[in-house]
Each structure stands twice: as structure tokens, then as C-alpha cells.
Amino acid sequence: MMSKDMTPIEFTPSSGNVFADMGLEDAEELLTRAKLGVTVRRILESRNLKQQEIAKLLDIKQPEVSNLMKGKYHLFSEARLFGFLNKLEKKVTIQISTHYAGEALIEVAEIG
Q1: For residues 90 and 43, is the Cβ–Cβ distance under 8 A?
Q2: What is the dihedral of CA 33, 38, 43, 47, to 10 degrees?
Q3: pLDDT of residue 33
Q4: Distance CA 65, CA 55 (A)
Q5: Which long-range contacts (CB under 8 A, 24 or more apart) does 18-26 make?
Q6: What is the CATH number of domain 26-87?
Q7: Quick check: 31 and 106 in contact, CB under 8 A?
Q8: Taking the domains of the chain in order of start, what are their residue ranges?
């Protein structure tokens, strides 16, 4: 039950890209990196590896593993994140299609 003192909360609906909502110039690229990074992190978490094991597997230094696992995806290029997926034996497929108004310009989806 709502009290009489409750006032409605004002909000602005998201565009679907938090980085664009924040007015960042490279919003699409940041969103792509975030989606790729989350995919890499989920795969690594599912394997229950220690950071030293991840570093060896991805051929990176431990501080980079820490950044990756903490979600600091802006520190990694898209190409590097694609490379991590390849090292994790994941196939990366890029599909090019017509863009329609209101759709995301870039989509990342994990299949299987």
C-alpha cells in the first residue's frame, strides 16, 4: 500500500544503450565492447578458472584478467575481445543486414 507522502518518480526511458543515454560519443562501440566482454566473462566464470589460469589461457597479464573480470571492458579493443573468444574456442560470426530506425546498430548474441 502506498502512503500519501509518496510522490511519483520521474524518469526518462532508455534508448537501449546506456552509453548513448549518457551522451557518450562512442556509445555504439562501448556497448559492443560491453556485450563482448560480458560474453567472455560468462564463459570464463562457467569454467571456474583461477585468474592465473585465465591469464595463461588468454595470453594476458594477471592485472588485465582482473580488469576483464571486473567489467572494465573499455580497456580492451573489440578485436582483442574477439581474440579472447577465439582462444576460448568460440566461433565469432558477423552478420551484416539493413538497419531500421529504432534498432540497435550492433548486436552481440551468444548461441549455444
Answers
A1: yes
A2: 130
A3: 93
A4: 6
A5: none
A6: 1.10.260.40
A7: yes
A8: 26-87
